[in-house]
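Researcher: We plan to redesign the surface later, but first we want a full-length starting point. Tokens attached.
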């Protein structure tokens, strides 16, 4: 029973996934910063960036994604094709924290012109994993403490009494390094 629940609960996660949405974000680049400097989305969401430069030429490179473009006052160009585009669209397919940075030297503090894209996993993964672990352990404890379900003829074996040298090994401070 507990094995069925331990397998069934994580498998049922796929039915609780949030639907992917589209986020349209007006990204403004000005000397030494982006506005907004932090973007938070869910995995699978589509992000439409409408970039503008308020002062000088700025670049945009998103680590972990093949996305790079250059912004000038009133125009945005894709880095490799040099196509002029009003907006840039991509799908946040990887969960994690990704840094975006300016690729065009725009002044003394140019190296600090960064921001971050945070892509959250699109499922209540940790909730369901902890719930399934809790459920399995509680069922095991219930079976263990229920006198009617005790195994007949079950005898505990104390390994430290059977093999005293094993106890000495476990008490060594360097034992953890032997395991690794």
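Model: Full-length starting sequence:
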């Amino acid at each position: 029973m507990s094995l069925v629940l331990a397998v069934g609960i994580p498998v049922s996660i796929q039915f609780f996934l949030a639907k992917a949405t589209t986020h349209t974000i007006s990204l403004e680049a000005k000397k030494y910063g982006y506005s907004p400097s932090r973007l938070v989305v869910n995995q699978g969401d589509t992000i439409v960036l409408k970039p503008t430069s308020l002062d000088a030429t700025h670049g945009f490179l998103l680590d972990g994604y093949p996305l790079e473009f250059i912004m000038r006052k009133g125009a945005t160009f894709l880095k490799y094709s040099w196509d002029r585009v009003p907006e840039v669209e991509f799908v946040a397919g990887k969960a994690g924290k990704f840094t975006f940075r300016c690729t065009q030297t725009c002044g003394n503090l140019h190296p600090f012109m960064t921001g971050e894209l945070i892509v959250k996993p699109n499922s209540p993964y940790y909730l369901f994993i902890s719930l399934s672990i809790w459920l399995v352990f509680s069922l095991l404890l219930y079976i263990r403490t229920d006198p009617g379900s005790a195994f007949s003829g079950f005898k505990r074996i104390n390994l430290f009494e059977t093999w005293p040298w094993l106890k000495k090994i476990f008490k060594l401070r360097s034992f953890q390094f032997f395991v690794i």
